[in-house]
Design brief:
By secondary structure, this protein is α/β, with parallel strands linked by helices. Helix content is 18%, strand content 28%. The chain has helices spanning 138-145, 186-194, 233-244, 254-263, 303-311, 314-326, and strands at residues 27-32, 37-42, 55-59, 61-63, 67-72, 78-86, 91-97, 107-110, 115-122, 128-134, 171-174, 198-204, 227-231, 249-252, 273-277, 292-296, 337-340. Helix 5 crosses helix 6.
Length: 341
């Protein structure tokens, strides 16, 4: 299967540069796989497609202001870091630009000296392992001097940092938002809960690898990036009880989907734990856990559109995307949503 099989035409003006005025008033394309029917709604109308006994699975990761702009301590040369994964207390894996300045032993300064970083090692992916030095609490320092690492296709500044967080974001660790969850408000979640629908919280820290292009022609040769997940016994019990009573497990976003399919067994049930996942889902994959997916519209030739094409078919998804383009849906992180069930 070729990467080019997942290409589609997208006018640049349909790439959303800012969030909708209200989270739950973005548009929602609803696709029923059984009868192959498309409906065009508003996101808050999703309650009409949910049933008592269902379980929504949401990713409660929190985006950190992971982009740091600073200078080399000895020469003053400019440097950009993007935090990826915390290895130990003050040891992080980071992306660096320009890489030629980030040699082992070099020290960089950020925020007029509030934060310093020494390059400790390199990674196989071309990143660096750095050790940070600071006074006080790292998260507070980062909050003062860090910048939200918006996706490369968003060119306008973000006026409200909270709009790149879900309302249920809790655990620091992501370099990108689980964007399907951006459409939910507290009021909408309460309405869903009052309908008799469970809401299970899981955590997968989203890395910038989600935006990396697939650089091989045959998708089977692509190596997925790895991301850290945590799933509690409470969440597992909620999900497994839903399966036992015949309810539907609906993943909110591809991050929740990938986590569920990682922790799912062939018996159709999930298991608690923490770890790293590099699961790559593309057409031909047999889903073990999810019955439905809420997701945004994804980049052409990306691993995310491949995942969605495994839930429906490639031909169906590309047809849906063409409809979305024709009807001028807003695409990508700040764009509109789709519910497939």
């Amino acid at each position: 299967m070729k990467v080019s099989d997942f290409d589609y035409y997208l006018p640049e003006e349909l790439i959303a540069q800012h969030p909708a005025d209200r989270r739950d008033e973005s548009r929602l394309l609803v696709y029923n796989r059984e009868i192959k029917n498309i409906e065009h709604r508003v996101f808050k109308n999703i309650v009409e497609y949910l049933r008592p006994g269902d379980c929504l699975v949401i990713n409660d990761t929190k985006v950190i202001p992971a982009r740091l702009l600073g200078n080399r301590e000895d020469t003053g040369g400019k440097m950009e870091f993007v935090l990826l994964n915390q290895k130990e207390d003050d040891l992080w894996e980071v992306l660096v630009k320009p890489g030629k300045r980030a040699k082992i032993g070099t020290v960089f300064v950020f925020g007029d000296g509030l934060l310093k970083a020494e390059i400790i090692d390199t990674t196989d992916a071309g990143g660096r392992i750095v050790k940070f030095k600071y006074e006080g609490i790292f998260e507070e320092v980062l909050d003062k001097i860090g910048i939200m690492p918006l996706p490369p296709y968003i060119h306008e500044p973000l006026k409200d940092r909270d709009r790149y967080q879900t309302v249920y974001a809790k655990y620091d660790g992501s370099a990108a938002a689980p964007t399907a969850g951006l459409h939910f408000t507290e009021e909408l979640l309460n309405e869903i809960y009052d309908m008799g629908i469970d809401i299970a919280h899981i955590t997968l820290h989203v890395g910038l690898g989600t935006f990396r292009p697939v650089k091989v022609d045959n998708i089977e040769e692509h190596k997925m990036h790895s991301e850290i997940y945590h799933v509690t016994e409470e969440a597992v019990n909620m999900i497994n009880n839903t399966k036992k009573r015949g309810g539907r497990v609906i993943a909110i976003g591809t991050t929740s989907c990938r986590t569920l399919e990682t922790i799912g067994g062939e018996d159709g049930y999930v298991h608690a734990g923490s770890g790293e996942t590099d699961i790559f889902i593309y057409p031909g994959y047999k889903f073990k856990i999810i019955d439905g997916l809420v997701t945004n519209f994804h980049l052409p030739q990306s691993t995310l559109i491949m995942l969605v094409s495994a839930l429906a078919s490639r031909e169906e998804i590309l047809s849906i995307y063409k409809t979305a383009v024709d009807m001028k849906y807003r695409f990508f992180s700040f764009g509109d949503a789709m519910f497939i069930f």
